[in-house]
Amino acid sequence: MMKAVFLPSHFDGDGYYRLLFPARELGRRGWDVSVAPHRTVPVEGPPGASKTFYGVIEEAQGGLRVVQQLDSWLMDEPFDVLVTQLRDEPGFVEVVRQLQEVGKRVVVDSDDCWIDLPAWNPGSKRKQAELDAAMELLRVADGVSVATPALADVYSRWCDATVIRNRLDWPMWEDVTPAYEVTRRRVRVGWMGEMKWRRGEVQVLKEMLLPWLLDHPEVEFVAAGDPTVHDVVGTPLGQRVSTNRVPFAAMDLADITATFDIGLVPLADGSQGSRRLNDCKSHLKGMEYAACGIPCIATPTESYRWWLEDGDCDHGFLASTAAEWRDALDTLLDNGIRERMGRAARAAGESSTIQEHVHEWTHFLTGVCADTDFARPLVAAR
Question: Which domain range does residue 204 map to?
Answer without folding.
Answer: 171-350
